[in-house]
Write a structure and sequence with these properties.
alpha+beta, two-stranded antiparallel sheet, 335 residues
């Protein structure tokens, strides 16, 4: 878990919480990264931006990352990391939170985690040794840039090195410093996208402001006690059986398409309601409406037993590996 959270553990708490929630909707992260890359979309702000994002039907946690295009870009480029983080957060929220705290203590002991004018943050050590990192001004959020291989001191388990994010183009660390801060982002201009969730460290979960969340998440489920939970009907984070796949169909019940996990692979699908669907019979699949990375209509062989899988690959440019089994490789369509 520390290996997974190493590149984000030193993010300000509000941004960290949004990344953790959004990672459980990896396909939507890919879509959002591409959406932000369109100049006309980047020019939107205020109510126009909010309305445009509502039309995408993404989870509000994904919408909240639109002010941070570099974060979205990295999550898109490192989609396997995003999926792994999302699966871990769905299954082990409190353990993921504890891993973040462990790394913050290591960074503080190494002298890397400290308040500076450049970080625009307030670092507090509270009861129980909990370290919080909060924006000094609620409407200004600064995304730190750091190398996890050095910022935490000596990495405790060399066999499991930390995930490392690429350094932004043109960014240069100050001499002798391994954590830097680009100019802060003014989240106020992004309207209601920001400020509706925060981390409850003592209980190891994320608290949601229901009314503010509802402004973005129309039709999303109610969070009991205001505690965030992953919505399996809205997205999918599944591997190894602890989060179920939800397959969308054309109409109410249009056939028996089935997605199988193939050897060494994974499946990422979104549910009915805003997805074009798999064709009948499970042999073919249609792409999303013009903007999904897609692998479909795959036939592989495992020990002579053929199987069919519709594999939506949230893979940046829309490509992934073939499924492997005892009998050979399955081909794939690239969309």
């Amino acid at each position: 878990l520390e290996q997974l959270v190493a590149p984000i553990a030193l993010y300000p708490d509000p941004l960290l919480g949004q990344v953790l929630m959004a990672s459980t909707y990896p396909l939507e992260v890919v879509e959002a990264a591409r959406w932000v890359g369109v100049p006309a979309n980047r020019a939107l702000s205020g109510e126009a931006l909010t309305n445009a994002l509502k039309a995408q039907h993404w989870d509000p946690s994904v919408m909240a990352l639109v002010p941070f295009p570099r974060v979205l870009a990295v999550m898109n480029e490192k989609i396997q990391w995003t999926e792994d983080l999302g699966r871990a957060f769905v299954a082990q929220q409190s353990e993921v939170m504890a891993a973040v705290q462990d790394l913050r203590h290591q960074a503080m002991a190494a002298g890397s985690l400290k308040m500076t004018p450049q970080c625009h943050c307030v670092i507090k050590t509270e009861a129980g040794g909990i370290i919080s990192i909060l924006p000094a001004a609620p409407q200004l959020v600064c995304v730190p840039v750091y190398n996890p291989t050095v910022v935490y001191g000596r990495w405790p388990v060399p066999l499991y090195p930390p995930v490392v994010f690429p350094v932004p183009v043109g960014f240069v660390y100050a001499p002798g410093v391994w954590i830097g801060f680009p100019p802060p982002i003014q989240v106020a201009i992004f309207g209601p996208l920001w400020g509706w969730g925060w981390i409850d460290w003592p209980h190891g979960h994320i608290i949601i402001d229901g009314p503010r969340y509802a402004l973005l998440g129309v039709g999303h489920p109610f969070f009991a006690g205001g505690v965030w939970v992953h919505d399996p009907a809205h997205g999918l984070v599944g591997h190894g059986g602890f989060a179920a796949a939800r397959v969308g169909f054309v109409g109410a019940a249009a056939g028996a398409a089935v997605a199988h996990h193939y050897a060494g692979g994974h499946t990422v699908m979104r549910g009915a309601g805003h997805d074009p669907a798999f064709a009948r019979g499970g042999h073919a699949a249609h792409s999303f409406a013009g903007h999904s990375a897609f692998h479909g209509a795959r036939t592989g062989h495992m020990g002579g037993r053929s199987f069919h899988s519709a594999h939506f690959a949230a893979r940046g440019g829309g490509h992934g590996g073939s499924g492997h089994g005892g009998g050979g490789h399955g081909g794939a369509f690239h969309h």
